[in-house]
Design brief:
There is one protein chain. With 86 residues, the chain is an alpha+beta fold. 36% of the residues lie in helices and 12% in strands. It is built from four helices and three strands. Strands 2-1-3 form a three-stranded antiparallel sheet. It starts with a helix and ends with a helix. Bound molecules: zinc ion (2 copies). The site of one zinc ion (ZN) has 7 residues, from strand 2. It catalyses: S-ubiquitinyl-[E2 ubiquitin-conjugating enzyme]-L-cysteine + [acceptor protein]-L-lysine = [E2 ubiquitin-conjugating enzyme]-L-cysteine + N(6)-ubiquitinyl-[acceptor protein]-L-lysine. One of its GO terms (biological process) is protein polyubiquitination.
Length: 86
């Protein structure tokens, strides 16, 4: 009887990872700045990894160390989105 229980728990049917779907749902257009955890103010992104931050947040961060807070890639430029569309 206990064998049936184990078989149910290990059932491969419907056991596909739902995590990828959940993760893509997290990335919403109005996502938040990973530095201040608030909505983006003057959204900007880095030249290397294209991660997005508030312009002020990443500017302050770059004074400490010019590398991405998320992926640790060094960056040389911060692109301010408003000025790109200008
Ligand atoms: Zn911020
Ligand atoms: Zn990054």
């Amino acid at each position: 009887m206990s064998a049936i229980k184990v078989a149910l728990q290990h059932s491969p049917k419907g056991g596909r990872h739902k995590t990828s779907k959940a993760m893509s749902a997290e990335v919403s257009p109005d996502s938040k700045c990973p530095i201040c955890l608030d909505v983006f103010h003057n959204m900007s992104y880095l030249d290397r990894c294209l991660h997005k931050f508030c312009f002020r947040c990443i500017l302050e961060w770059s004074k400490n160390k010019p590398e991405c807070p998320l992926c640790k890639q060094p960056f040389r430029s911060i692109y301010h989105i408003n000025s790109i569309y200008h």
